[in-house]
């Protein structure tokens, strides 16, 4: 069966005791939408190191991807965070949703030590900042599941496909729940702003991959 040419946007299920993850909501709501005339497929990934690679392969098997943006939540982050590098390493600060806590685990024994994003990060940063959306570049996607998904996607996809990872802040409602429970205040960003930022990032990534006249 011929695969659908589409852009893939992934998000993670809630984790760490939270009942919501904005990355999952963006992926869900963008599924079936169009950005820059290109159909978008949104898929949810598990916060489970034992299941993540298979789930990501399944998501990629659904489409012939013209661009891939993987999303995740970074509690405490103040901005849309554009990740430069994925490390060939899993070393978890907290257990995943299955209770696993990887330590010094290599993601691919034959793989490179690190892989760099293939999204037009500076272009995205400039556009979002120009629109008043707080955005910054980050040197590393960390060593949790977000990093693993970025590393594996970059490993598996052809180099011509723009691919990378973007971290999102908490939603205001999540911060409010924390305050009700006595937690310290944290930064947040409204959902429509987050979604708009990802739509723009995807549009710019598609433009970067378009054949030049």
Characterization of this structure:
By secondary structure, the chain is α/β, with parallel strands linked by helices. The chain has a single domain, classed as 3-Layer(aba) Sandwich (Aminopeptidase). Helix content is 34%, strand content 23%. The strands form 2 sheets. A 7-stranded mixed beta sheet has the order 2-3-1-4-9-5-8, sandwiched between helices. A two-stranded antiparallel ribbon has the order 6-7. The protein is globular, with a radius of gyration of 16 Å.
The oligomerization state is single chain
Q: State the secondary-structure class.
A: alpha/beta
Separation of termini?
Answer: 31 Å
Biggest sheet strand order reads: 2-3-1-4-9-5-8
Overall pLDDT level: 95
Largest sheet: 7 strands, mixed
Give the helix level as a range of percent: 25-40%
Radius of gyration: 16 Å
Low-confidence stretches: none
Along the chain, the helix and strand elements come as EHEEHEEEEHEHEHH
Please, how many domains?
A: 1
Outline, from the CA principal axes?
globular
Give the full name of the CATH homologous superfamily: Peptidase C15, pyroglutamyl peptidase I-like
The count of helical stretches stands at: 6
Name the descriptors.
213 residues; alpha/beta; Aminopeptidase; 7-stranded mixed β-sheet; two-stranded antiparallel ribbon; 9 strands; 23% strand
Helix-strand layout with pairing:
Blueprint: E1 4-12, H1 22-30, E2 34-35, E3 38-45, H2 49-61, E4 63-73, E5 80-83, E6 85-87, E7 114-116, H3 121-130, E8 135-138, H4 145-156, E9 163-168, H5 172-180, H6 191-209
Parallel strand pairs: 1-3, 1-4, 4-9, 5-8
Antiparallel strand pairs: 2-3, 5-9, 6-7
Helix pairs in contact: 2-4, 3-6
